[in-house]
Fold this sequence. Notes:
The protein has a single domain (5-235), classed as Class I glutamine amidotransferase (GATase) domain (Rossmann fold). Helices cover 31% and strands 28% of the residues. It is built from 9 helices and 14 strands. The protein has helices at residues 18-26, 49-65, 78-81, 84-91, 103-110, 114-125, 134-137, 169-172, 176-183; strands at residues 5-8, 36-40, 69-71, 95-98, 128-132, 140-145, 150-155, 160-166, 192-196, 200-204, 210-214, 217-221, 226-230, 234-235. The strands form 2 sheets. The chain has an 8-stranded mixed sheet with strand order 3-2-4-5-1-10-11-14. It has a 6-stranded mixed sheet with strand order 7-6-8-9-12-13, with helices on one face. The longest helix is centred in the N-terminal third of the chain and has 17 residues, at 49-65. The chain starts with a strand and ends with a strand.
Amino acid sequence: MNGPLALLGSGEYLPVMNDTDRFLLQNCAADGRAPRVVCLPTAAGTEGEQTIAYWMRLGEEHFRALGAEVASPRLTNHAEADDPALAAQIEQADLIYFSGGKPQYLFETMNGSLAWQAVEKATARGAALAGCSAGAMFLGEYLPDFRAFGLKQSRAFGLLPNSHIIPHFDRMLAWRGVTIPLLQPLLPAGEYALGLEEDTALIGKPGGEWTVMGRQNVLVITREEVKTYGAGWVITLPT
C-alpha cells in the first residue's frame, strides 16, 4: 500500500482522535481537494440495527466536522461486500475507516470480496486506511483468540506480517504482572503482539517507520522483550 495505515486501540470518531484523523486527512490521496472518507460499520454487522446506525452516524458527523466529504454506506455482510456500486465508492475514497465490533466476522465478510479488492486499489493509489479495535485486529497477520486467552492461529489480512494486534491493551495491563508473562511464551519465534492502548494510534506504512499518536502507549511484545512507546515516538516494527 502507498498511503498511511492507522491502527487504533479505541476512540474512533471521537474528539480525542481529532489530531490523528486530521493527520490522515492531510496525508491521503486528496491532492488539495476535500478528502473523500468512507466509514464502514462492517465489524458491527451482527450487533443489530441500532448499533450499525450509531457507527454510521458517528463517522459521518465526525469527519464532516473535520472538513471532509464523508459517506457511511451500509456494508454489514458478504453480499453487500460484493456490491459493485459500493466497491466503486470505496475505490474512490481517500480515507477508508473500519470501526469496531467483531474481528473474525469483519475478516470473513471482507475476505475475497469486491469491497476488499477496492480497498487494495485505493491504498495502492495512496489512500489512507484506518482500523479501530476490531478494525485494527483484522489487518494483522493473525486474530488473537481472547476466549482461550491465547493466540489462535486464525489468519487475517496480514498487512503487518507476523503480527497479532491487540486493542484496548491498557485494560489488560491492570493485570500486567500476569498478562504479559502468559502472553510471551505463546508467541512463536518471529511473531509479535502489538498492544494498542485506548485512545492511541500507530500510524505508518508496512516496512517503514511508525509514529505513535494519542493519549497513551503502544507496546511491542516478543518472546524476548516488551517495549513501550508513548506519543511522539517514531519506531520500526519487527519483520
